[in-house]
Design brief:
The two termini are 35 Å apart. The protein has 18 helices and no strands. The protein is globular. The protein is mostly helical.
């Protein structure tokens, strides 16, 4: 039993490392924008198009990845994802030019989403039974935050060791790539091939099963939870800008705030996960957290723009960060609460990701237009109202699903 527990949580730490590290590479431009731009002589438009190529492949890959996860072993898929992404990272660290970089980023859309995302969700779910889902997903999200923060700090230290910024960025990227290669090899030896029933299905049956999942009403309620919670999560990025614009926060303080956010991700994920298992309901954690989160965003509207209110805004932001990560840690764990068969976890998580992450398509343009069109706090207030509304809607949707699940259990007991 002790060895089984060690293996379970050792695997979870490995998966959390991978989750924290693998997305550093497709979004590496956020960390080393200028060195990468200078190394290849790219325009700002060309830099932006690299992530455009990633998104073109990644967006449909969420849906297809659900099929892949239920047809093939997570052990194979995760090993392939980490090793291939690591190799692509080593290639990119050579700064091969614009055309080759477009190919690299497009391929990373495949290796970090289609073969990875739904597979890692399924791998985490398979680590424990129904009573453990909250803490498993919570620990994975929490550890991901802590480990991600650690990696960013180490990469920054590697970058700083070189006088030439381009060389420093290249070695920081190589560090991340090598770590992914190591994780990939470890996955092959650590992850077990369990619950392989779904692998006996033909590809046709898996595809048909994917579309059958689309007809399940509670799957769409789960989509609604991800959509609304992800909307609030995305809009958190505007708080840094709000604090800088309206309260005069320095760029250094803004950078430190980003690091603190990673640490609070760890707190929110772990607390949310253990609380969910304590009360035996991931959905109740989501519902309660969303209710308080909606109030937190509404509070931003009421807090005045004056020097004395700066710390109040900051504290309110920290509370919101913990709550949103508590929700994020559970909005794939709640697949179990909804009574979805573990053998279709990949397909359902693919559906949730495809439709739940749609705010990426329109939300940032919408929020940006509000801030541009309405001067001062008025533009940000519209962002706050939208976020508060999404939090309230998340609470309502999860509440409806709680009612459906409760009714099902009552029917079964009778």
């Amino acid at each position: 039993m002790r060895q089984s527990t060690f293996k379970k949580y050792g695997t979870l730490v490995l998966l959390a490392c991978g989750a924290g590290f693998i997305f550093q590479l497709p979004y590496i431009r956020e960390t080393f924008y200028i060195p990468i731009q200078n190394a290849m002589g790219l325009t700002n438009a060309e830099m932006g198009s690299l992530n455009g190529w990633y998104a073109i492949v990644a967006t449909p890959a969420y849906f297809m990845g659900g099929i892949v996860a239920d047809k093939f072993s997570p052990k194979i898929m995760l090993t392939f994802s980490f090793v291939s992404t690591g190799l692509l990272g080593l290639w990119f660290s050579m700064f091969p030019g614009y055309n080759a970089s477009r190919v690299i980023f497009a391929l990373m859309g495949f290796t970090t989403v289609m073969t990875y995302w739904s597979s890692v969700i399924k791998a985490v779910r398979m680590l424990g039974d129904s009573d453990e889902q909250g803490r498993l997903f919570g620990l994975q999200e929490g550890l991901r935050g802590f480990l991600n923060a650690g990696l960013v700090f180490v990469m920054a230290a590697v970058y700083a060791r070189f006088a030439d910024n381009v060389v420093g960025a290249a070695w920081a990227i190589r560090l991340c790539a090598v770590l992914l290669l190591i994780i990939g090899v470890l996955c092959w030896f650590v992850i077990d091939n369990t619950n392989v029933k779904e692998q006996t299905e033909s590809l046709k049956d898996v595809c048909v099963g994917m579309f059958k999942c689309l007809k399940i009403p509670r799957v769409w309620l789960l989509v609604g939870i991800v959509f609304t919670a992800y909307s609030v999560y995305g809009l958190m990025s505007y708080i840094n800008t709000y604090l800088g614009t309206m309260y005069g926060m320095s760029e250094t303080a803004a950078a430190n705030l980003g690091g603190i956010r990673y640490l609070l991700q760890g707190v929110g994920g772990v607390v949310g996960g253990f609380l969910a298992d304590k009360i035996h309901s991931r959905l109740k954690v989501i519902c309660g957290s969303a209710a308080v989160l909606a109030l937190s965003w509404a509070a931003f509207i009421l807090i005045p723009v004056e020097a004395g209110a700066y710390m109040l805004v900051l504290v309110n932001f920290f509370i919101g960060v913990i709550l949103v990560y508590a929700i994020r840690s559970q909005y794939f764990a709640d697949i179990d609460d909804a009574g979805i068969d573990v053998n279709v976890t990949g397909r359902v998580s693919g559906i949730l990701s495809t439709f739940g992450y749609l705010p990426d398509v329109f939300m940032f343009s919408l929020a940006g237009s509000w801030i541009d069109s309405y001067a001062g706090k008025a533009g940000y207030n519209r962002v706050f109202i939208y976020a508060a509304a999404m939090g309230a809607l998340c609470m309502l949707i999860s509440g409806v699903l709680i009612g459906i699940v409760k009714k099902d259990k009552k029917t079964v007991s009778e």
